[in-house]
Automatic annotation (TrEMBL):
It catalyses: L-glutamyl-tRNA(Gln) + L-glutamine + ATP + H2O = L-glutaminyl-tRNA(Gln) + L-glutamate + ADP + phosphate + H(+). Gene3D superfamilies: Amidase signature (AS) domain. One of its GO terms (cellular component) is glutamyl-tRNA(Gln) amidotransferase complex. The gene is gatA. The keyword 4Fe-4S does not apply. InterPro entries: Amidase, Amidase_CS, Amidase_dom, AS_sf, GatA. Belongs to the amidase family. GatA subfamily. One of its GO terms (biological process) is translation. Its EC number is 6.3.5.7. This is Glutamyl-tRNA(Gln) amidotransferase subunit A. The lineage of its organism: Bacteria, Pseudomonadati, Pseudomonadota, Alphaproteobacteria, Hyphomicrobiales. One of its GO terms (molecular function) is transferase activity. It comes from Pseudorhodoplanes sinuspersici. Heterotrimer of A, B and C subunits. The active site is at K52 (charge relay system), S132 (charge relay system), S156 (acyl-ester intermediate).
Length: 453
């Protein structure tokens, strides 16, 4: 813990942490020492981790990296983090993220952009770590913690994991409790861990997962000992290669990586099968209707009365307006506007309802493939390696949204997906592959992920 506290202080230029809690960490680490000495250690005893600032932490500032939450200090702890503390983990601080987890580069944070610890060969251009969980990914990659929590609504764990050369899993919807996690799009949001190895990922997920009566969408199923999946044979497994993921303009290095991943799995005894997920091309547009719709509803609670920031106005409506105008950044406002538009009378059927129907079709595509005997699906995690800070945050938001092309389908279908580091781009940046599994079959993803890693 002391070594990590020092590392965090030395790496402030990355802007990975928005709150450092060294005193709290030292106190917790001492308690862990005592537990270890008395033979009473939990499975994560003394392990220093970072926590995305989307998880409520009791008595410690939680902002979702939005001005509107101000200096909000939750009087409660999220279920996922409380399970990590129960098992002995030590919190080093809260990590940076895109405001309300809306973004793919960690540039929409009210605390400013996170800078990746990676650079292109022979270049000093600062790169994004990906988003929205960019602070967690950068912190794990730069060794500013041993693991970190993230959330993934459309790719926010898998894309930053791929950009920073680490492992990130988005578990099945319902596997981890959403209680105490600031909501973005409730039917898509899931928590999951970032780590440097697949094995560490399995260990952290075991602590984070589990049924929680406080989240009615969390599922009452026993949590397996995921670590047992590491090293398990993948012989005879059928791995689907979906043709729709071979998108136009895909860089040859991504195509090559994908092929390489398939070869590794084949060598380990798995069988590759060509599959089709015909509705893939509609996933991104449908996601960017469903997610903003839910966000506009979830963000209605930030009214200047209940949390953090308040700006006075001429009357109560004026106060709401002034608070929301001062508190929300551009991307969040864009989402609220899109969301309220697609939900409004007259447009609901054309946009929201249609997007929900498309979502069902996407889900069915996966169900058909899995019921035909496919055990998991292999795809690239992202359409490119990390890009430069400022490079894609210009006037056209679609540029940024296109980053999610391989990841949003998984959230739309509620499936588990893992990103594992698989190689380097021509200019020396990490590239990741994604494995998509059957509902609640994270174990298969860990077994296969370890083969690729
Ligand atoms: N980049 C996607 C978005 O901006 C996904 C973000 C996320 O998974 N939280 O909506």
């Amino acid at each position: 813990t002391n070594a990590h506290i020092e590392a965090v202080e030395k790496a402030r230029a990355l802007n990975a942490y928005v709150l450092e809690t060294p005193e709290h960490a030292r106190e917790r680490a001492k308690a862990s020492d005592a537990k270890i000495a008395s033979g009473d250690a939990g499975p994560l005893e003394g392990i220093p981790i970072g926590v995305k600032d989307l998880f409520c932490t009791r008595d410690l500032r939680t902002t979702a990296c939005s001005k509107i939450l101000g200096n909000f200090v939750p009087p409660y702890e999220s279920t996922v983090t409380s399970q990590l503390w129960r098992d002995g983990a030590v919190m080093l601080g809260k990590t940076n993220n895109d405001e309300f987890a809306m973004g793919s580069s960690n540039e929409t944070s009210a605390f400013g952009a996170v800078v990746s610890p990676w650079r292109r060969n022979g270049s000093n251009t600062p790169l994004v770590p990906g988003g929205s969980s960019g602070g967690s990914a950068a912190a794990v990659a730069a060794r500013l913690c041993l693991g970190a929590t993230g959330t993934d609504t459309g790719g926010s764990i898998r894309q930053p994991a791929a950009f920073t050369g680490i492992v990130g899993i988005k578990p099945t919807y319902g596997r981890c409790s959403r209680w105490g996690v600031v909501a973005f799009a409730s039917s898509l949001d899931q928590a999951g861990p970032f780590t440097r190895t697949v094995r560490d990922n399995a260990i952290l997920l075991r602590s984070m997962a589990g049924h929680d009566p406080k989240d009615t969408t969390s599922v009452d199923r026993p949590v397996p000992d995921y670590e047992k999946a590491i090293g398990k044979s993948v012989k005879g497994m059928k791995i689907g290669i979906p043709k729709e993921y071979r998108i136009d303009g895909m860089p040859p290095e991504i195509e090559k990586l994908w092929h390489q991943g398939a070869e590794w799995l084949k060598k380990a005894g798995a069988e590759m099968v060509d599959i089709s997920l015909p509705h893939t091309k509609y996933a991104l547009p449908a996601y960017y209707i469903v997610a903003p719709a839910e966000a506009s509803s979830n963000l209605a609670r930030y009214d200047g009365v209940r949390y953090g920031l308040r700006e006075n106005g001429r009357d109560v409506t004026g106060m709401y307006e002034a608070t929301r105008a001062a508190g929300f950044g551009d991307e969040v406002r864009r989402r609220v506007m899109i969301g309220t538009y697609v939900l409004s009378a007259g447009y609901y059927d054309a946009y929201y309802l249609r997007a929900q129907k498309v979502r069902t079709l996407i889900k069915r595509d996966f169900e058909d493939v899995f019921s035909a005997g496919v055990d998991a699906i292999l795809t690239p995690a992202t359409p490119s390696a990390a890009f430069g800070v400022g490079e894609k945050s210009g006037a056209d938001p679609i540029e940024m949204y296109l980053n999610d092309v391989f990841t949003v389908t998984v959230n739309m279908a509620g499936l588990p997906g893992i990103a594992v580091p698989a190689g380097l781009s021509e200019d020396g940046l990490p590239l990741g592959l994604q494995l998509i599994g059957r509902p609640f079959d994270e174990e298969t993803l860990f077994s296969l992920g370890e083969v690729i890693e």
